[in-house]
Amino acid sequence: MSELREKLGPLVIQLPPSFNIKKDKDALETFLGQIDQKYTHAIEFRNKSWWKPETYKLLEKNNVALAWSENQYASTPTETTSDIAYLRMVGDRTITNFSAPQKDQTQTMKKWYSALEEKSSLFKQGYIFFNNHFAGFGPGSVNEFRRLAGLAELDWKAIKTEPGPLQSSISQFQQ
Fold first, then answer.
1. Distance between CA 65 and CA 58 in Å, rounded?
2. Residue 45, Cβ neighbours under 10 Å: how many?
3. Using one digit for the tens of pLDDT, what is the confidence trace for 148-173?
4. What is the 3-state secondary structure (H, E, C) of 21-59?
5. What is the distance between the alpha carbons of residues 91 and 85, in angstroms, rounded to a whole number?
6. How confident is the model at residue 161, as a pLDDT?
7. What pLDDT score does 3 carry?
8. Cα–Cα distance between 13 and 149 in angstroms, integer?
9. How is 164-175 classified by DSSP, letter by letter?
């Protein structure tokens, strides 16, 4: 993975809703003790049993970010366990038309923007991802969030959409 250099963001561990603190705490502790600290990590819990101080201490001890997430399972707490912010805006999977925004998520975005702004001094870097299920059109959600942050919108139509040459090896990714 070191070949990716600056193109490599956090390695994200996504855990299923069935993974809970009562039966899986030891497995998580073992796993976190084995991760390579030269990489940045975030972990997304989809079971509320993990949302407690002992979990946050374990993540902090291992320098693993608690992935903040808005998804079909829950809205995670905004605890800070490392020096990065990692936010996933996933939604609830009921939206199936992705051609334009289908659902007004302005209030949800304002909530998450406020949380990021409040804790921004604790982060060296932030990563925010939107999928189409969040509001119906991921690029539109990105622009809405950019507006909240006082940033210019991206012109998605001006961005090249025709496929370029395909990457066939990791060495080509480095270019």
1. 10
2. 26
3. 999 999 988 787 666 666 555 555 55
4. HHHHHHHHHHHHHHCCCCCCEEEECCCHHHCCHHHHHHH
5. 19
6. 63
7. 81
8. 27
9. -PPP-SHHHHT-
**Domains of the chain, first to last:** 2-139 (3.20.20.410)
- pLDDT recorded at residue 173: 52
**Rounded distance between C-alpha atoms, residue 38 and residue 131, angstroms:** 28
- The predicted pLDDT at position 175 comes to 46
Q: How many Cα atoms occupy the beta-carbon half-sphere of 43 within 13 Å? A: 25
Q: Give the N- to C-terminal CA distance of the chain in Å, as an integer.
A: 15
pLDDT at 71: 85
Q: How many residues are listed for the chain in this entry?
A: 175
Q: Closest Cα to residue 70, out of 84, 53, 90?
A: 90
DSSP string covering 89-147: EEE-S-----SS--S--HHHHHHHHHHHHHHGGG-SEEEEEE-TTTTS-HHHHHHHHHH
- SS3 label, residue 61: helix
Phi-psi region of 49 (alpha: psi -120 to 50; beta: other; left: phi over 0): alpha
Which regions of the chain are under pLDDT 50? Answer: 174-175
